[in-house]
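Holo prediction. Input below; ligand is zinc ion.
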Amino acid sequence: MMLLRKEKHDVFPCHVDYGHLAEEREWPACQAVCKYLGVNPPVRFRVGGTKAIPSGLVHPELDIEKQAFFPTRNLLFATLGAAYAHGISCHVIALGIVANPIFPDQTEGFFQKAQECISSALGVETTIMTPLISLDKREVLKLAKARGLPFELTYYCHSGKAQPCGVCISCKERITAEKMLLEGSS
Ligand SMILES: [Zn+2]
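Structure of the complex:
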């Protein structure tokens, strides 16, 4: 969002509540970041019934690290974003996917196919942008820091707890990246 804003794009942020454990903290963080960046207030999609999907992201009793896959999550995000964009006559959507994919729906190849599929579904050529896909988490944090984004506005832990769990994939990536950034490694 920060990069799009910098390039003077009119940004219409979307947030998806898919019944995940972090929603209560992610949504206010999303609103705070949007407000800070001066973009339009975020739209919140609420997807129900996801407890039928055995993922650690929506079930506190499952392993938040080893069962972190929420099948087709990025396809769901891209589809909802494209549906919303279509309604406001916009045909470009952007997702903040970073490098080093762990799951199949995080790769450039996947997004190329998703773009074709969504364009076909809408009957309009639609572009999916993933401006961070060649940057790892450390490089993304470095970029955000350079642009002055207050990290305290963000939330990243999959557990949804006030204190980051330090165990989930998101925590591990973020904590390692912050450590590397502090140590000044490039
Ligand atoms: Zn965590």
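Helices lie at 2-6, 23-37, 73-87, 108-122, 137-146, 169-183. That is the main takeaway for now.
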